[in-house]
Specification:
Largest sheet: 10 strands, mixed
Shape: flat
CATH architecture of the largest domain: 3-Layer(aba) Sandwich
Helix content: 40-55%
Radius of gyration: 48 Å
CATH class of the largest domain: Alpha Beta
Number of helices: 13
Structural class: alpha+beta
CATH topology of the largest domain: Kinesin
Strand content: 15-25%
Number of strands: 21
Length: 648
């Protein structure tokens, strides 16, 4: 367990135009900074103590010696390390981290110190990778490759928290790293405000991954000497918090300032949570900001951390300085759990490349060693680039597989819907086919009752002719019993009356009976009608009764839910739904085919990349053959020269 090292640096005062001055000022005494009134008495509650308090005369080299030098040595030994500068805008953060030619900052001093320690470590071999990113408006951009923008943060057990797609360069000297940083600074966002002519509008993180392995190969394969140490060093230059009233920012700069203040506020919340006790800590909002998510191992995790808080001594900035000092006081209470990062698997890049170049290194002890070392470094960079591309393609392939699975699930659901609709349509067609034709009984007083078509499920099981014969027999017996009853036109229950058949033509008059024995005589008619006398001659030709039409509005008529037109409309609707579902199915099949085509293209690209990697891996062998051939030629030339020299 180790506490975070916190230091405060006071920059030289700048000329500030102010109307009223109360005479308050900040005073540095050893490792304490306090606010004093005009007569020199400290103000209560405005005194803060830290590990180091540096006045305006302190140089960047002194800051590096007190805060970062031990951090760099620990990173070389396998510990993670992070150093960042925090403070308001124009307080000297960028100058502390980057410096200038006469007074270099923490980043260039750390880079030179790392390579000096590597040269002195004769018992270990090192591999250094560097990357440079910025967080601009909560979006991660690659400063080495400006085309890589809006990168995403990922986490796994092997690499921890990392930025996917970030370009990494393998380096072997300090000058190469400083040149890369100079190229990256060109792509960084700067702006001019009322408080700073060159104000940082984004947070930058310079990251070095240091891998090392013992050169002692006499021990067994899985001994401690064969363990690979992998440490991550983050050197962070934060953008400063700012007040719009003082900076006068507007437009784009106003939007940038809002994002800067938001990320710094989240950083302050994380520091507040970590500074509380273990039981009172609760949830720590690392994921509320890209900055805190990347710096999560440095804040309460496995890393040695140093924080340099820069403040402005002017009276007009007293409130901002007080806020920075309170942030530093809370950060001082945070404890990290640090340990050496050792890897015993083949996951580290150093181990993967060692088997390929071990024999080549032995053969490069002669001439052209420097040129061939550069070739090897170039091959390493290309191999690393292909590894990153392979990882990116693997992630895209995984996303395509997920979308393909969802598409298949959607197709299955649509197929189930289609099957249900097909079953409904088949049932409707069977119901529509079960139509019965029934003859209502006819009497002498109502001879035109006609033929009516009815729907009945039970009648649909018999042939039409057989049903007609059965109905005719039933109607004949019914006619004999009820010859003088008034015909009933009410529909049978669970049936409905349809239109008259086009094949039954209405007669102009009532038909004459075939058997006159069923016709009542005058005496019977008088008895039935209670003495009412009627001209029997008028009964011989009764005018035809007009056919009754039963509309859907008739309450005594049939139910509209059982009409043929209703069933036809329902069938048409179901057919339209079926056609629409089939179109959706075809569209999903086309989309599925397109996804399969894209997956095949990705697989082809991956196979091409694998072939290129195999070709690149074969280059060292070709170089070995070329070196061997050159040595043979060199020996031949040397022997010829020796023979010629002897003859002289």
């Amino acid at each position: 367990m180790e506490k975070i090292c916190v230091a405060v640096r006071v920059r030289p005062p700048a000329p500030v135009i102010q109307e009223v001055s109360s005479g308050l000022y900040w005073k540095v005494e050893h490792n304490r900074i306090s606010l004093h009134n005009p007569i020199g008495i400290p103000i209560s509650g405005a005194s803060y103590a830290f590990d180091h308090v540096l006045d305006q005369n302190c140089t960047n080299a002194k800051v590096y010696e007190l805060l970062t030098e031990d951090l760099i040595r620990a990173a070389i030994e396998g510990f993670n390390g992070t150093a960042f500068a925090y403070g308001q805008t124009s307080s000297g953060k960028t100058f502390t981290m980057n410096g200038c030619e006469d007074n270099p900052g923490i980043i260039p001093l750390a880079i030179r110190d790392i390579f000096q320690h590597i040269q002195m470590a004769l018992d270990r071999e090192f591999l250094i990778r560097v990357s440079y990113m910025e967080i601009y408006n909560e979006e991660i951009n690659d400063l080495f490759s400006p085309e890589n923008q809006k990168l995403q943060i990922h986490e796994n057990l092997e690499r921890g928290i990392f930025v996917a797609g970030l370009r990494e360069e393998i380096v072997n000297n300090a000058e190469q790293v400083l040149k890369l940083i100079e190229q990256g600074e060109v792509n960084r966002h700067f702006g001019q405000t009322n408080m700073n002519a060159r104000s940082s509008r984004s947070h930058t993180i310079f990251r070095m991954v240091i891998e090392s392995k013992s050169k002692d190969t006499s021990s067994s394969e899985h001994s401690n000497s064969d363990a690979i140490r992998v440490s991550v060093l983050n050197l962070v230059d934060l953008a400063g918090s700012e007040r719009i009233a003082k900076t006068g920012a507007g437009g784009v700069h106003l939007k940038e300032g809002k994002h800067i203040n938001k990320s710094l506020m989240v950083l302050g919340n994380v520091i507040n949570k970590l500074s509380d006790g273990g039981k009172q800590r609760g949830h720590i909002p690392y994921r509320d900001s890209k900055l805190t998510r990347i710096l999560q191992p440095a804040l309460g995790g496995n890393a040695k951390t140093s924080i340099i808080c820069t403040v402005a001594p002017e009276e007009v900035h007293i409130e901002e300085t007080r806020g920075t000092l309170q942030f530093a006081s809370r950060a001082k209470c945070i404890t990290n759990c640090i340990q050496v990062n050792e890897i015993l698997t083949d996951a580290a890049l150093l181990r993967r490349q060692k088997l390929e170049i071990e024999e080549l290194r032995k053969k490069l002890q002669g001439s052209r060693s420097e040129v061939l070392e550069q070739e090897i470094l170039k091959l390493r960079n290309e191999l690393l680039k292909y590894e990153l591309e392979r990882e990116k393609l693997a992630m895209e392939l995984e996303e395509e597989r997920k979308s393909h699975k969802e598409c298949n699930q959607c197709i299955k659901e649509q197929q189930m819907k289609i099957d249900n609709i097909n079953s409904i349509v088949s049932c409707s067609e069977q119901d529509g086919d079960s139509v019965q034709i029934k003859f209502f009984p006819s009497s002498s007083s109502m001879a035109d009752a006609g033929i009516l078509v009815l729907l009945s499920t039970g009648w649909g099981q018999l042939p039409v002719r057989q049903r007609l014969e059965e109905d005719s027999n039933d109607d004949h017996s019914t006619c004999q019993e009820n010859a003088f009853k008034t015909p009933c036109f009410k529909s049978v229950r669970n049936t409905f009356v349809a239109k008259r058949s086009n094949y039954s033509k209405l007669p102009d008059s009532s038909p004459l009976p075939d058997d006159f024995s069923n016709v009542a005589d005058e005496e019977l008619w008088l008895r039935l009608n209670k003495g009412h006398n009627t001209d029997l001659n008028s009964l011989q030709m009764t005018p035809s009764i007009k056919a009754h039409s039963f509309s859907s509005s008739d309450p005594s008529g049939p139910s509209p839910g059982y009409s043929i037109e209703y069933y036809k409309d329902e069938i048409q609707n179901l057919k339209r739904q079926l056609e629409h579902t089939i179109e959706e199915k075809n569209e999903l099949e086309r989309s599925h085919a397109k996804q399969l085509f894209l997956n095949n293209q990705i697989l082809v690209e991956m196979s091409k990349l694998q072939q290129e990697m195999l070709l690149i891996r074969g280059i060292p062998q070709k170089l070995c053959v070329s070196v061997t051939h050159c040595k043979d030629i060199y020996k031949d030339v040397l022997s010829i020269m020796q023979i010629a020299f002897k003859h002289r």
